[in-house]
Amino acid sequence: MQNKRIFLTGGTGFLGRSIIKKFYDENEITVYSRDEAKHYYLKKQYPNINCICGDVRNYDLLKRASKNHDIGIFTASFKQIQACHDNYEEANQVIVNGAFNSRRCSEENNFESSCFISIAFLKLSAACSKCLDPQYPFPMNIYPLCFDPA
Predict the structure, then answer these.
(1) I need a labelling partner for 64 at 20 to 30 A (CA). Which of 17, 28, 70, 133 fits?
(2) Which DSSP helix (H) or strand (E) runs through 83?
């Protein structure tokens, strides 16, 4: 992929940084994420990257920030088991509503193509057995979905 404007949510995470490393030299990349401190360090390594502080739950900002991009790669999510458990309402908003907002932005901004990756790992072990108990709401979705909206 060359000479594309890539919009990347969750770009400061492990997967996002790997995507940046692969496509940085030949494309213009905009990272949209909540952590401005990570933006600072990301820009030190990749000075030409554009960083926007935002949350995938905020549809209006997400749509404005992603306008005029060719490709959308949506990786923003809650990934830590304990964080999902302790903040299940927020995790649900980010994982579920963020996925809907991301797809809607992709379609309304007419991206050439989009890739949606939302991963929450549930480790099924004795240490995490309470995650299987229905009294502990735990949002879990594991899916990669890529589509061409055109």
Answers:
(1) 17
(2) helix 81-86
105: left (phi over 0), alpha (psi -120 to 50) or beta: alpha
| b/e sequence 24-51, b meaning 16+ C-beta within 10 Å | eeebbbbbbbbbeebbeebeeebeebbb
* Residue 2, strand partner residues: none
pLDDT tens sequence for the chain (150 residues): 899 999 999 888 888 899 999 999 999 999 999 999 999 999 999 999 999 999 999 999 999 999 999 999 998 887 777 877 788 888 888 888 888 999 999 999 999 999 888 654 433 333 344 444 445 444 444 333 333 444
User: Is residue 66 a contact partner of residue 105, using CB atoms and an 8 Å limit?
Assistant: yes
The structure tokens 């990349």 sit at 29
